[in-house]
Amino acid sequence: MLRYYFSHESYTPMEIFHLTHLSGKTMAVFYICTLLRLIRRYGAHRLEDFAAIGRTALSNYLAQSLLTWAALLALGDAAADLPLWAGAVYCIVVSLLLTFGSRIWLRSFRMGPAEWLWRAGTYGTLPPLARTPKAPGTHSGGLGH
Question: pTM of the predicted model, to two decimals?
Fold first, then answer.
């Protein structure tokens, strides 16, 4: 697939359908195995910062969708002329921004804004969003679960 991406100007999905069909499943297994090996080697506590992504998943999904929509709207027809690697760089940058943004957000709030709205709609009450201040000398040791 990489050879295809670097040797073609545009992406024709049907030309590499067999590769994309197999690679999705292969990558899923690779990610799971890599995550399990990291946990076994370094311990789950080393990866707890990634919990912020999961705790704000709906907000991240919506933010990524809005950012991509805005980028495509700003680029217009020029988006079709971008090389394939530009999409990969864009994904990495947006993922990093959302990861760090989630961590910062959860320092002050219990959940993401979209999660808060979802929970309010589900239960019909407004759940607390802001974190309560910690007493001096206490330490949560993580994201404050």
Answer: 0.69
